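**User:** My hope is that you can spare some time for a protein that puzzles me. I have put the entry right below:
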Amino acid sequence: MSAPIIIGSRLRKGAAGSPRGAGKFVGDILATVRRLRSQTASGLVLVRADSAFYGHAVVAAAHRAGAKVSITARMDPAVKRAIAAIADDAWTTIEYTDAIRDETTGKWISSAEVAEIPFTAFSSRRLSERITGRLVVRRIPELNPFEGTGQPTLFDTHRFHAFFTTSTLDTVTADKTHRQHAIIEQINADLKDSALAHLPSGIFTANAAWLVLATIAFNLSRAVGTLTSTDLGKARSGTIRRKLIQVPARISTSARKLRLHLPASWPWEDGWQAVFTAACGPPRTATI
């Protein structure tokens, strides 16, 4: 997986819900992605999100842009009916928490299982606005049954996690891919631990400008990290600053030249030299 970058950011008022303006935001982001991709580039463009963004505006915006979606579905009556219609023999055991692989059969021994069923999202809307896809469901045994029932349940009960997807990935791969959307939470935590720790300022426009600067700093630090031989592109901002940016060096002047004296036996010398050569060296020939 390559280093994460932020393609777009938007500041909303604190009283506004998460899905407000999300449809247009997703459309703008996918337009940027389309411009960034070369004409010969190919591959799956997948929009992953949690249940707050499970709405027609977001899914339709992705559909118009030619992207696929993988969005957690809320447990509304339509989703519950679809889950109840899944056959008992349709569930597949997957690698999950505390899973063990059977060396003889090569299958996973786990309490988590996945299955899928065809699903039409937003069926209450007009026919042209409905979007067909699949409902991929992961279930795990309910370990915290309701108290006060008086006796154990006769059958095993499960907790279900469903998401709606329009991709062509197989069931197990789709579930594993969807679970990776939590990487955005790591980026949010990184920003809150660095530039966004200084918000709010009390002025909306100032905060919006600061958010843009924070985004630029985040992407530039990842670009610097990927230029090193140690591949610090996936590291947190604080780690990149400590190892590559906040250098304990001394500047001196000799023969009308500026000289940078770096510390001896510095463990990140090779990485810093690679960044310096890429940024200040002669232009490299582009490969096609």
The chain has two domains: 22-143+155-189, 203-280. The mean pLDDT is 83. Strands lie at 46-49, 68-72, 92-93, 100-101, 108-109, 113-121, 131-141, 158-165, 250-254, 257-261.
